[in-house]
Amino acid sequence: MNDWIEKPNFIVVEGPIGVGKTSLVHRLAKHFGSDMLLEGAEENPFLHRFYKNPREAALPAQLFFLFQRSRQWNNLSQGDLFRQYLIADFMLEKDRLFAQINLDHDELQLYEQVYERLTLEAPPPELVIYLQAPVDVLMKRIKQRARLVEQKIEPGYLRQLCDAYADFFHYYDRSPILIVNAAEINPLQNEKHFQLLLEHICGRGADRRRYLNLTGFSL
C-alpha cells in the first residue's frame, strides 16, 4: 500500500445491501471534508418491480444501473479525482457482479454487449473499504431502515450476494482493501470504532489487504 501521510484522495466503500455503505460514506465525507459520489438506487424506476418479480424486471433494472453508473463516472474526469478528495459508495466493477447474479444466460450476453460498447472510465481507488456482515445482520438492518422497495428482499438472495462479494474481493487486486467486520464494528454510532477505522484508513504500511476485526469474523 502507499505510505500515506494523510488519508487517500479517492476511497470507495463497498459491500452487500444493508451493510451500511452510504451511511459510512456520509460520515467519512463530513469528517474529511470530501466530495461524495453516491449510487442513487432510489432513482431506478425498475427496482421495486425487480424485488417484487426478479425475473420480470432484472434486465431493465440492471441496464438502468449500468447507464447511471457509467454516466456518473464519466462526468468525473481523472483530473478532477486528483484535485479533490472523493468518497464513493460503489465501484463500477460491482455492476457486473449483480448482473451475473440476476440475469439469465441470454440477458447476461446482451448486458455484456452493452457493457463493452460503453466508454467506462473509472480509475482504481486508492483504498477500498469492504464492509461485510452475516445475512441475519443484513436482514435486520434492512427491516430497521424500512425502505419499502427493499422489504421483499429474501435471505437467499442476500446470501448469494454476500458469496459473490466475498469471491470478487478474494481476487480483486486493483487497489488496497480494508476489510471491515461491520457486524461488530459500528463506526457510525461508536466513536472509538470510528477512530479505529480512521487509523486504518490513514495508517501506513506495505499490506494491500488488511482486516479491521474485533471478534474474529472474517471472509
Q: In brief, what are we looking at here?
A:
The protein is an alpha/beta fold.
Tally of helical segments: 9
Helical residue percent band: 40-55%
Q: Describe the biggest sheet?
A: 6 strands, parallel
The figure for the number of domains is: 1
Question: Could you state the CATH homologous superfamily?
Answer: P-loop containing nucleotide triphosphate hydrolases
Radius of gyration: 17 Å
Q: Can you list the strand order of the major beta sheet?
A: 2-3-1-4-5-6
User: For the terminal residues, how far apart are their CA atoms?
Assistant: 20 Å
**Mean pLDDT across every amino acid position:** 86
Low-confidence stretches: 1-5
How many DSSP E strands? 6
Structural class: alpha/beta
CATH class: Alpha Beta
Question: Which range does the strand content fall in?
Answer: 5-15%
CATH architecture: 3-Layer(aba) Sandwich
Categorize the overall geometry.
Answer: globular
In the CATH scheme, what's the topology name? Answer: Rossmann fold
Order of helices and strands: EHEHHHEHHEHHEHE
InterPro entries: DCK/DGK, Deoxyribonucleoside_kinase, DNK_dom, P-loop_NTPase
Binding site for ATP: 15-23, 141-145
Enzyme class: transferase
Pfam family, one: dNK
How would you sum up this structure, described in words?
One of its GO terms (cellular component) is cytoplasm. Its EC number is 2.7.1.113. One of its GO terms (molecular function) is deoxyguanosine kinase activity. The chain has 219 residues and is of the alpha/beta class. It has a single domain, classed as P-loop containing nucleotide triphosphate hydrolases (Rossmann fold, 3-Layer(aba) Sandwich). It has 9 helices and 6 strands. The protein has helices at residues 21-32, 47-52, 54-74, 78-83, 93-102, 105-117, 135-145, 155-171, 191-202; strands at residues 10-14, 35-37, 86-88, 127-132, 177-181, 209-212. The protein has a 6-stranded parallel beta sheet, with helices on one face. The chain is globular, with a radius of gyration of 17 Å.
